[in-house]
């Protein structure tokens, strides 16, 4: 089995088992949108249901035991001092340091490349004598082992049916996502194919870890709009953006001119931002509770 196949299997083996449930405050609102030539998706909480409602970097939780289990699984030995040390503090410190570097460069919403974070975390733990060994383990596998432990995922209902129908209609598809290098493998795990095979334009997809900038920065949406126009001749108003977060998805997409659909199909991920007056009253063009409803609107 190839390394990538092993990564995909990790996501499958640690798949979320809690059923996806429509939240009580979902307000389905469908309408016919004319002139749509592309559908652009968020990933976590929209196409993929996440155990934490987002990518795992979005919040700090007590994950010391998960990190230690990851190192042990990947052939490391824990030093005598390990039981008295919180390994997750090393990880979060590395994330904050990387984010601080980007903020110093003037980026308001900094993102990290998790591979560099894990390389720093491993180095610092080794330097402190808390771990040793693991010479055969690569950083990518460490990151995926940990992510699959702390953030079990599964396909949203109707994922494959929706993507297949959009592909059959010859609508362009792409992604704007707060994500990491391993995010595309979730589609191999839960939709049975790679993103290009499923119909996604990789030239027009924008990933936060590549830009080292995250949502709700409008820059990600500006880049996506430019790529859609350059590669496919599609203007922003001809694209429908689908996401689960009023602040991170709907607001910036609207600023750039995308049509928008708020995905309200998963109680774990819907973010109305009711406590933030800047975003609470934003109204998407659509509110959907099932991905397949997109097909009725375009």
Tell me about this structure:
With 298 residues, this protein is an alpha/beta fold. It is 39% helix and 12% strand. It is built from eleven helices and ten strands. The protein has helices at 3-13, 64-73, 87-104, 114-127, 139-150, 159-168, 185-190, 195-198, 208-211, 218-232, 246-256; strands spanning 38-41, 48-50, 76-78, 131-133, 153-155, 172-177, 206-207, 239-243, 259-263, 286-288. It has a six-stranded parallel beta sheet with strand order 7-6-1-8-9-10. β8, α11 and β9 (259-263) form a beta-alpha-beta unit. The mean pLDDT is 96.
Descriptive key words:
298 residues; 39% helix; alpha/beta; six-stranded parallel sheet; 2 domains; globular; Rossmann fold; 12% strand; single chain; two-stranded antiparallel ribbon
Q: Widest sheet: strand order?
A: 7-6-1-8-9-10
**End-to-end CA span:** 41 Å
DSSP strand count: 10
Q: Return the string of H and E elements.
A: HEEHEHHEHEHEHHEHHEHEE
| Poorly predicted regions | none
Mean pLDDT: 96
What's the CATH H-level homologous superfamily of the largest domain? Answer: HAD superfamily/HAD-like
Oligomeric state as shown: single chain
C-alpha Rg (nearest Å): 20 Å
CATH topology of the largest domain: Rossmann fold
Known CATH architecture of the largest domain: 3-Layer(aba) Sandwich
The 3D shape can be described as globular
For the record, what CATH class of the largest domain applies?
Alpha Beta
> What structural class do you assign from the helix and strand content?
alpha/beta
Helicity, in percent?
A: 25-40%
Distinct helical segment count: 11
What's the number of domains?
A: 2
Report the sheet with the most strands, covering strand number, pairing sense and barrel closure.
6 strands, parallel
- Report the sheet-strand fraction: 5-15%
